[in-house]
């Protein structure tokens, strides 16, 4: 099937920001914005996945609650379609549009991009937008090393706080590729770290509470200068490989492992 036949139907659609997650009333002002980028596919002309959208909501609600006192607003980005589609990098383009739309709506506020899988790749690509202060990549889909192709870009992340989280049993996206990416990113941006969730898979369900607590810790410290937990501060400060293979301890966020 031709490439255009695969991706053509999605090109007539437009990306959208969903309603603010967990908001009890219309939101016109914000102290900071989290944009959640759902998972996607390498090549597809199909509409964005409802299931992938729904999978982002629990984390969005957790972040919105944690940052409510600081005026944090969370939106799930509704892509034009679910495919990355080669050099079109459609999901990254939609992520950049979403950042610009957040600035249009809320003004000059810090933005954190939070993506999963292919959405995490989009977040990393779009992290160079001037409004972006932080990027959280959960189980990022990253391409295999190819000497004939340009490596995934990292320079756009300079000046941002970057956290990658990957389950060691992820059968969909390769944890070793995210480690290699983090290693390259750390060379140009010291505010980069990576946590490994041992024995967890792509969806990070087994340690969902710990992952959400780490995400909230990262977002609040990056956007609002809240104090970091000791594990996050240690991971940011540690040189490779320690700061890029930091284990996420069971019970993180409950008081047993945070300090």
The 3D shape can be described as globular
N- and C-termini, Cα separation = 54 Å
Topology order in helix (H) and strand (E) letters: HEEHEHEHEEHEHHE
- Give the uncertain stretches in residue-range form: 1-9
Radius of gyration: 17 Å
Number of strands: 8
Percent helix, as a range, is: 25-40%
Portion of residues in beta strands equals: 15-25%
Order of strands, main sheet, comes to 1-3-2-4-5-6-7-8
Mean pLDDT: 92
Major β-sheet profile: 8 strands, mixed
How many separate helices?
7
Secondary-structure-derived class:
alpha/beta
What order do the helices and strands come in, and which of them pair?
Blueprint: H1 3-7, E1 16-17, E2 32-37, H2 50-66, E3 72-78, H3 90-106, E4 111-116, H4 118-126, E5 132-138, E6 161-167, H5 175-188, E7 192-197, H6 208-224, H7 230-237, E8 246-247
Parallel strand pairs: 2-3, 2-4, 4-5, 5-6, 6-7, 7-8
Antiparallel strand pairs: 1-3
Task: Note down, in words, how this protein is organized.
By secondary structure, the protein is an alpha/beta fold. The chain contains 7 helices and 8 strands. Strands 1-3-2-4-5-6-7-8 form an 8-stranded mixed beta sheet, with helices on both faces. Helix 2 (50-66) crosses helix 6 (208-224) and helix 3 (90-106) crosses helix 4.
Brief account:
This protein is α/β, with parallel strands linked by helices and 259 residues long. It has helices spanning 3-7, 50-66, 90-106, 118-126, 175-188, 208-224, 230-237; strands spanning 16-17, 32-37, 72-78, 111-116, 132-138, 161-167, 192-197, 246-247.
């Amino acid at each position: 099937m031709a490439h255009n036949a695969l991706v053509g139907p999605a090109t007539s659609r437009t990306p959208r920001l969903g309603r603010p997650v967990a908001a009890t009333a219309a939101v016109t002002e914000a102290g900071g914005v989290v944009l959640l980028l759902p998972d996607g596919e390498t090549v597809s002309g199909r509409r964005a996945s409802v299931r992938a959208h729904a999978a982002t909501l629990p984390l969005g609600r957790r972040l919105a609650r944690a940052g409510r006192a600081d005026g944090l607003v969370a939106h799930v980005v509704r892509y034009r379609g679910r495919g990355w589609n080669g050099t079109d990098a459609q999901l990254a383009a939609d992520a950049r549009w979403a950042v610009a739309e957040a600035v249009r709506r809320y003004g000059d506020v810090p933005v954190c991009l939070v993506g999963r899988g292919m959405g995490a790749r989009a977040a990393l690509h779009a992290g160079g937008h001037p409004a972006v202060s932080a990027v959280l990549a959960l189980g990022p889909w990253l391409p295999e090393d190819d000497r004939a192709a340009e490596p995934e870009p990292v320079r756009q992340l300079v000046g941002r706080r970057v956290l990658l989280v990957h389950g060691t049993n992820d059968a969909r996206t390769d944890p070793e590729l995210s480690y290699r990416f983090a290693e390259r990113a750390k060379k140009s941006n010291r505010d980069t770290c990576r946590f490994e969730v041992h024995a967890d898979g792509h969806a990070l369900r087994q340690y969902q509470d710990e992952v959400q607590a780490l995400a909230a810790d990262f977002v609040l410290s990056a956007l609002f200068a809240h104090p970091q937990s000791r594990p996050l501060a240690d991971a940011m400060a540690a040189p490779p490989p320690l700061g890029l293979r930091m284990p996420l301890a069971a019970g993180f966020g409950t008081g047993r492992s945070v300090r």
